[in-house]
Structures are given as structure tokens and as C-alpha cells.
């Protein structure tokens, strides 16, 4: 479980995160949604310890991150897997080498142990025969799966994904979303995903935190998002006509 209390983050005089409090549970796909520029990536980078912040606390299993010493921070980082916006694979390494990278960095496993683990996770994301390919030879969807394999190779307790399906077609996006949800449940990971995709909300939005201009405007789940009267949320959700129709159908089915 990750808990965030009253987080404030500025760049110079500009306050970007204006006092965010929320929590993310284990074994769940937690979504941070909101329009472009609302602060999702900045928030995720604060959670990861990549950005300093002026005030507020972030705790992992009850331990406040800023109170940890350097060794403890390093240990925590080894328990975090990350899928960056746009996959961010190393171009000069094969797919297998990309996936092995965190094991080289954070563990003292032998070459054959690492190879076994790489084989296992590549199989888990349905990429059995891509080991020797270079990232440039892989499609966008394959690259995302490589990034997910790399993020989970060291058995993370926490998985952070920044727009994991940006640039993918809707069907491949759903495959990626479902893969992340399956892995989250299978390994009981605390997963936090940045998204501005309503498909992801409907597929895997077990907990949803809606950011607007650096505030937490609303939180709930895919079950409650269609019932809220919060104007900012409804504007976001129904910026797509499709979801206006889905809402009508949903409310009819549930006799509301
Ligand atoms: N390193 C930085 N220095 C100064 N300002 C920044 C920096 N990073 C982000 N910002 C600002 O913080 C605000 C929030 O940006 P952020 O990247 O978190 O948005 P986002 O919700 O992730 O948007 P998107 O959906 O487009 O990825 C923006 O106004 C952005 O210009
Ligand atoms: Mg972003």
C-alpha cells in the first residue's frame, strides 16, 4: 500500500501539485487520470522519488520515503518496476538484454539465473521468440510488452506505468491494459497507471484518482465514475460521444 498525504510540488514559483492525498492498494490497478498538463507525470515521478517536493509525505507500507536512509531508498527502488511514457527501451541492446538490465543493476544473480528469469518474463508477455530482436525491429505493442517484461523482471512490489498504451491502436491498448491487470493480480503488486484513456478506465479502473490543475478533483472506481455529478469528471468522461451513450446504457441497465 502506498499512502500520499497533502503533497505539494512546485517548479520555481509555479505550484503543480496543490495538496494531494490518496492511497493505492496492493493487488489493484490504480489509475491516475486527468487532462494533459493536470500533473499526472509529475505526481508519478514524486511517487518514484525522482522529484523532490516541498511538503507532504509518501509512505510505502507505512514507511515515509523521505525518512529512509540511502540504503533503504536503494532497496525500495529495487522493488519498483517502471514503464515510462513511450517505452524507453535501450536502442543498442537486444530485447533480451533490455529485459535483463534491472537484474544486472539490482541483483547478483548468475548469467544463467538471469537468462532463466528473462525467458520466463518474456514468455509471460507472449514474446517467446523475440529475444534477439532489436527494439527498432519490434512493433509499438511489442515494445510495450518488452517494457512491461523489463518492469516485472525483478519481481517488483510496485509497478508504475506512465501512459502504457499511448500510441497504440484500441485493440492493442486493451491487450496491454489487461496484461498489466493480470500481472498485478498474479503477483499481488501495487500498480499505479497514468492514463487519459477512457477505455483503460472502463477496463481496469479499480481505483481512479482524477487530477485537475494539480488538485485531486475526485476519486472512485469504474463502477462509480458514471454516477458522479462532478462537472470536471463528467466533462472528461463525456468528451467522447461514445461514453455518453455508454452512460445511458449503464444507467438503464442499473435502473438509475
Ligand atoms: N521539469 C519541469 N519543469 C517545469 N515544469 C514542469 C516540469 N515537468 C512538468 N512541468 C509542468 O507541470 C505541469 C504538469 O505536467 P505533467 O507532465 O505532470 O502533465 P500530465 O498530466 O502528465 O500531462 P500529459 O497527459 O500530457 O502527459 C505542466 O504544466 C508542465 O508544464
Ligand atoms: Mg504525462
Detailed description of the structure:
The chain is of the alpha/beta class and 256 residues long. It has a single domain (2-220), classed as P-loop containing nucleotide triphosphate hydrolases (Rossmann fold), CATH 3.40.50. Helices cover 39% and strands 24% of the residues. It is built from nine helices and ten strands. The chain has helices at 40-47, 70-78, 95-106, 111-124, 140-152, 170-186, 198-204, 231-237, 241-253, and strands spanning 2-11, 14-24, 29-33, 55-60, 63-64, 80-83, 158-162, 190-195, 207-212, 215-220. The strands form two sheets. Strands 6-7-8-3-9-10 form a six-stranded mixed sheet, sandwiched between helices. Strands 2-1-4-5 form a four-stranded antiparallel sheet, covered by helices on one side. Helix 3 (95-106) packs across helix 4 (111-124), helix 3 packs parallel to helix 5 (140-152) and helix 5 runs parallel beside helix 6. The longest helix has 17 residues, at 170-186. It starts with a strand and ends with a helix. The structure holds adenosine-5'-triphosphate (ATP) and magnesium ion (MG). Residues 40-41, 85, 162, 194 line the site of magnesium ion (MG).
Provide the CATH architecture. 3-Layer(aba) Sandwich
List SSEs in N-to-C order. EEEHEEHEHHHEHEHEEHH
CATH superfamily descriptor? P-loop containing nucleotide triphosphate hydrolases
Count of discrete structural domains:
1
Mean pLDDT: 92
Question: In whole angstroms, how far apart are the ends?
Answer: 33 Å
Number of strands: 10
The fraction of residues in strands falls at 15-25%
Per DSSP, the total helix count is: 9
What is the gyration radius calculated from CA atoms? 19 Å
The CATH topology assignment is Rossmann fold
Which descriptor suits the 3D outline?
Answer: globular
Give the distinct bound molecules.
adenosine-5'-triphosphate, magnesium ion
Helix fraction, binned, reads 25-40%
Strand order of the largest sheet: 6-7-8-3-9-10
Structural class: alpha/beta
Runs with pLDDT <50, length 5+? none
Broad CATH class = Alpha Beta
Amino acid at each position: 500500500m502506498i499512502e500520499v498525504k497533502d503533497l505539494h510540488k512546485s517548479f520555481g514559483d509555479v505550484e503543480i501539485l496543490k495538496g494531494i492525498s490518496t492511497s493505492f492498494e496492493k493487488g489493484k490497478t490504480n489509475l491516475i487520470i486527468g487532462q494533459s498538463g493536470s500533473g499526472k507525470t509529475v505526481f508519478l515521478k514524486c511517487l518514484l522519488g525522482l522529484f523532490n517536493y516541498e511538503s507532504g509525505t509518501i509512505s510505502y507500507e507505512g514507511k515515509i520515503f523521505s525518512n529512509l536512509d540511502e540504503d533503504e531508498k536503494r532497496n525500495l527502488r529495487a522493488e519498483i518496476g517502471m514503464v515510462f511514457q513511450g517505452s524507453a527501451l535501450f536502442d543498442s541492446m537486444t530485447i533480451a538484454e533490455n529485459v535483463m538490465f534491472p537484474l544486472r543493476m539490482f541483483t547478483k544473480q548468475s548469467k544463467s539465473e538471469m537468462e532463466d528469469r528473462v525467458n520466463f518474463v518474456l514468455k509471460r508477455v507472449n514474446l517467446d521468440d523475440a529475444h534477439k530482436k532489436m527494439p527498432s525491429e519490434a512493433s509499438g505493442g511489442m515494445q510495450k510488452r518488452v517494457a512491461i517484461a523489463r518492469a516485472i523482471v525483478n519481481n517488483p512490489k510496485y509497478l508504475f506505468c506512465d501512459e502504457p498504451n499511448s500510441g497504440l491502436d484500441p485493440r492493442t491498448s486493451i491487450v496491454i491494459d489487461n496484461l498489466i491487470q493480470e500481472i498485478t493480480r498474479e503477483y499481488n503488486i501495487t500498480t499505479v497507471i497514468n492514463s487519459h484513456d477512457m477505455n483503460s478506465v472502463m477496463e481496469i479502473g479499480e481505483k481512479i484518482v482524477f487530477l485537475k490543475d494539480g488538485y485531486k478533483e475526485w476519486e472512485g472506481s469504474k463502477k462509480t465514475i458514471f454516477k458522479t455529478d462532478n462537472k470536471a469528471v463528467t466533462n472528461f468522461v463525456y468528451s467522447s460521444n461514445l461514453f455518453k451513450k455508454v452512460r445511458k446504457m449503464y444507467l438503464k441497465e442499473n435502473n438509475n
